[in-house]
Amino acid sequence: MLTPPADNGQDILALAVGINIPLFRKRIASGVAEAQAHRRSSQRDLDDVLEELRFLLRRSLVRLDSLGERTSLYTDTLIPQAGESLASAEAAYTTNRLGILDLLDAERVLFQLRLTHQRLVADSWIALADVEFAFGEPFPRGGPTR
Predict the structure, then answer these.
(1) Residue 19 — very low, low, confident or very high, per pLDDT cuts 50/70/90?
(2) Which of 6, 32, 58, 119 lies at a C-alpha separation of 20 to 30 Å from 135?
(3) What would the mean pLDDT of 108-132 be, rounded to a whole number?
(4) DSSP string of the chain, one letter each residue
(5) Residue-level pLDDT at 22
(6) How many angstroms separate the Cα of 78 from the Cα of each of 98, 103, 113, 117?
(7) Residue ranges covered by each domain of the chain
């Protein structure tokens, strides 16, 4: 049997050298370019969605303001005037100075004004829902109260 020499493997000196050879550089560069193009495309899509939301918000806020003014007009002016007109027509009817058709016409006008007012309130709530959709959370104000 052979005996190994003394200090076998204790006096080894090792040197390692590494070189990076860019074999797949074009593939990596094309992957990076594709990722950058995908990022730009996604950013454009995001910008488009944000612009649509800004437009929806602006349109809904203008609509909400307009509906509020119209609702106020009906509440403060038109409906009270139609109520007074109906009361006047009832008084004239009871004294036989006005016919039944005139009384019914005054009642119809008041009914139509109240119906239009309720439609305006409903449209205000729809506009508020559009504002909340654009914000992504409940609108800070309490909603259309007029």
Answers:
(1) confident
(2) 119
(3) 94
(4) -PPPPTTTTTT-----------TTHHHHHHHHHHHHHHHHHHHHHHHHHHHHHHHHHHHHHHHHHHHHHHHHHIIIIIHHHHHHHHHHHHHHHHTTSS-HHHHHHHHHHHHHHHHHHHHHHHHHHHHHHHHHHHHTS--SS-----
(5) 67
(6) 22, 18, 7, 10
(7) 45-135
